[in-house]
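Appendix B: a complete holo record

For completeness, this appendix reproduces one full record from the ligand-bound portion of the collection. The bound molecule is zinc ion. The inputs are the chain sequence and the ligand SMILES; the output is the full three-dimensional arrangement of the complex, encoded as structure tokens. No fields have been trimmed.
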Amino acid sequence: MAEGKKTATKKPAKRYYRKRIELFRLIEKIKLWPSRQGLLHGIKTVDLFGDQARITTHCNKTFMINNSRNSRAARWLRNKWFKGVCETCRIPEWKLAKYSATYFKRKYGSTLANNERST
Ligand SMILES: [Zn+2]
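The structure of the chain with zinc ion bound, as generated:
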């Protein structure tokens, strides 16, 4: 399968998520976190505690978050508001490319829910 060879220039497929997607589902999927300073961090682990989650980034920051669709982080993630990428986290290029090919729509896209039916 010579044609299946991976190239750095290969564009990731576009993916669509609902705007009202649960924050926890979203970050478990994309594994990125926008800090208040506007830096994008890579998420190493997400530990769920009911309505809260403990996030550990690759640069070893740990903090608790709430599962809010309207939180600052949820909005920043959806709008792709960040001015830089954390150097310590070393987010791979493909992950950033995948993120930039991710779109959030009000009426279209996956909610990543377990019981989701394809429509
Ligand atoms: Zn970081």
